[in-house]
Amino acid sequence: MLRIRYALLILWAAGLAAQTADQIFSKILQPVLERDCQGCHGSTQALSKFDVRTREALIKGGARGTAIVPGNADASLLIHVLEGRNKLQMPPGGDSKKMSPEVISGFRAWVDAGAPWPEKSADSKWAYKEEDLWAFRPLRRFGPEKGIDDFINAQLAERGIAAAAKADRHTLIRRATFDLTGLPPTPEEVAAFLVDKSPDAWKNLVERLLASPQYGERWGRHWLDVVRYADTSGYSNDFERPNAWRYRDYVIRSFNQDKPYDQFIREQIAGDELYPNNPEAIIATGFLRAGPWEHTAMSVEAVTRQLFLDDVTHATAATFLGLTLGCAKCHDHKFDPIPTRDYYSMQAVFASTEFARPKLPFQDYENTSDLPGSAAQMRALYDRSKAKMDAYRTAAALDLMKKHGVSRPEDLPKGELDRAMAEGLGMNPEKFEEFKLYQKHSQLFQESLDRFEPKAYAVSSGPVDGATDGGGTLKYVKRADYKPAVIRVLPGGNIQAPTEPVAPGLLSALEKYGAYPSPMVPDSVTGRRSVLAKWIADPKNPLTARVMVNRIWQDHFGRGIAGDTNNLGKMGKKPTHPELLDSLAQRFIDGGWSVKNIHRLIMMSDTYQRASTCPEPRATLFACFSPRRIEAEVLRDSILAASGELSVDAGGPGTFPQINEDVARQPQHRMGSLAPAYHSSPLRRQRNRRTIYMFQQRSLVDPMVEVFNGPSLDLSCERREASIVPTQAFTLFNSQFVHDMALAMASRIAKEGRGVDAQIRRAFQLAYGREPEPRELELSRVHVDNMVAFHRGNAPPEKLRHKRLVHKITSELTGQTFEFVQQEDPLPYEPNLHASDVSPQIRALSDLTLTLLNSNEFLYVY
Question: How many whole angstroms separate alpha carbon 734 and alpha carbon 16?
């Protein structure tokens, strides 16, 4: 009796006492049986001959007899085991794996009620309020006469909130230029806009910025955040993806061309199937390979393949549909109407998707100007490493030839030389470690040489003969032998416990709640992704347009209309203005899926042009413009622009910027070995390109980008955060890069202004886009005068002398530590301007410019 009372108490505390046994089973017990039990007691294996998939099987039990006695929990072995009244423990694994009291009490109550087994249905699993399903519902159409301001102002009026006044023209040009190009306006652009009093001045400014090639670089970066673009694969080796840069450039071109968004979707998901003769579409499929992935000799192919399938399923749903499918990998989604079966059906769409790196000629519009020189530089590094490695191999061959009494290496017993090199025969431990390092470096440099080859980092439906790039085709040599894997439901995501197979399919929730039917997906090798791409890009899909316009709104205002741009499901933040979101989504579709048209609608509104001076909660309701700090890449690019050092080179393989010396010189480990040392690109025009063109290495992020909340290269970054930490101040005030750029900026203003006052004015124009106020001018003049006196009495620091880079490595075999001298860059380095190259006057001006580059006015958009 006490046990029954305790069970009822637990059920009451969990809010389940009023529920029927059918509801308890559907909501609590059935998911537990599927997630935690069927892996060992299901279709693939039934340990102890016990199967938990049906009521009849539970009653029958297994090797230990009947498991449940309907109507009598006290007589049921299953209850004894769950409650710990039996030596047998389920689930195994100690107390940490034990089911919660609520679940155990639920099982007891369910058995006492006769163990009813209702048919599984979505309605019994998910109880929704209408607001939980808003994103799945069809778009509502509003007349074109109802604009952005009508929706925003209606809410403000309803709450009695006054909107902020219109921002001044200086604020507006700075805001718009940063928003659309990611760069500060030049002083000349600011001056021209301030004197332009024509009615179309603002409209003309917006159009000029949208037509700028820098627009694609700015908005391409937003997209690359979401898709996790990188030039390396991550994990312990972090191997290079030599041709991935062509996808980055494809994204930038697509935004500059204002490519219709529905076409942008189709190309990235199924460009190889839908447009096989279009080079852009082949390059676009690099999206499907953007996540971290690695397969090595120590990997299990089935595991690494499943990692890709999970990743591409999640990424596609989050990027284009704003849904999180991760929960459904292990069990029916806890919050959104996405059954596990739907998850694996969508995953089956990618079952025939294989990695490919086909030859694809460089196009006229791609920047290949630096390829010959950069390839020669990489070839020199490779040749050096290979020569060092070959020297060891030659010495070993001579020893073996002497031992076997032969005069030529080819006369040695088959495989003898390879075995000697693998085991380090004839080499002392230090030499063996050095040989292995050169071997690793040769491998990495050889792969990097592919960076300059006309190939696409892409996918195909089934393997492409001669262009297979790993993935699921490791065991297939020829396409003719290929058969796509059968996708099965994996309870708990356990690849070792697959259950029933599923056919390729799409998400049923959109048909159920959005009246948007799902077409049939073929189970042939080709055509699967084509159906998915068209289904996502269809105007009738209620999610697609909402997701993209919400992203665009967020990147203008700092927050989306719906606050979580990757999650429009139940647990995502609900839209503050749902009708506005639908209106923009519908106008997006009606306008030919033009992203630039949405920019126009937003930026021509009063809402966008409001001043930033208003307290919360008005900013949340867009009664004013919320100030925000510029992102890490925009900060670096703005410093380069103000200094006059920003390179206009666009596109092509990633370059290597100047980064903190202590980070650049630190050892980078690669699977028990050392990677080659980091070298900044030798030419200033190469290393001072926009940050989007940096080589994106997952294991070595530019410290400036990292400390200023740069995106994760492993996880989709739906929104940049803006933390404030001391290391940001250290980076801006102490780093060599910022000091070098402050000196370059000082040299620039010394040339562009006659006299100290003119030079100070020019510094303010370059940093802030405005003239200094009288008090600012006076204080700056005094500061420069004081610093001139200081620098005249103090010699500048000496130029740093190049030191050879010595790294240490600990042998995996012996535990001994050895030193290794890293190779130097084969090309001469073009240095930045140094303090010893300039006069005390310019050094004093650099103290002023350094201060301006560290100010809030430089770092924030208002």
Answer: 60
